[in-house]
Each structure stands twice: as structure tokens, then as C-alpha cells.
Amino acid sequence: MATITQVRFTLAEPDLARATAWYTSALGMAVDFTAPGWSFLSRGAFRVMLGECPDALPADALGDHSWYGYVTVDDAGALFDEYRAAGVEFTQLLADKPWGMREFGIRTPDGHRLMFGQELQAGR
Q: Considering the entire predicted model, what is its pTM?
């Protein structure tokens, strides 16, 4: 069976330059490379392709369908503090959940929503 080696989310953005600037400044992502109409970003194993789509329905108009991913991290508290200091908008504050995750949610300026979570140790 083949092994999946990487996952990259693909998002439609009405203003590619603005979105790229936000992902790099607010979320601490690096620009891996660009191509006409595209920005390829990463932070560790978290990868995003931003595609410029000025006429697409904005993510904030999609309601529940604006969720696009769940990213597992090694220190949700530190990342939450980093994003709070950067002025990121939260959809859910940091909390321990009964399903064994410490997690929080964010919203991008264009309305895409994303969850970050850390696996809790058993008995914690």
C-alpha cells in the first residue's frame, strides 16, 4: 500500500497578496515558492496552496463549509499564545476536549476556519 507523505490544503483567495501576507505574518508560515496566481506556504508539516480566485464565493459565505482542516501540533498552548499575540481571530478558545485533544479554532481574514489540536496524554 502506498504511503501518503504530505498533505497540502488548497484555498481560493480573492486577494492572493493580502492572503499570503496574512499567512506569513499571523500564522508564521514561510513562502516555499510562488507561481502565477499561486502561493505555496508551509510551517513544518502544515502546507497550504493559496490560489487567487477573485470571483469565487468568499469562504465566509460558506457557513459551516468554510472549515478546511485540523492540524495536530506538539504544543497547542504555545501556538495559541503566539496566534493571540499576532491578533488572529479565534472561533474557539484553547480548551481540553473530552475526545483527548487540547484544541482551538481560528478564522482567516477571508473566512476560512481551521482547528489546531494537541493530543493529551492518558490520565491527564
A: 0.89
**Which CATH fold topology does 65-124 show?**
3.30.720
CB 72 within 8 A of CB 100: no
Task: Please state, for a pLDDT cut of 70, what percent of the chain lies above it.
Answer: 98
Residue 60 φ/ψ, nearest 5 degrees: -70, -10
Q: Name the fold adopted by 1-53.
A: 2,3-Dihydroxybiphenyl 1,2-Dioxygenase; domain 1 (3.10.180)
Residue 112: pLDDT band (50, 70, 90) is very high
Name the band, by pLDDT with cuts 50, 70 and 90, for residue 61.
confident
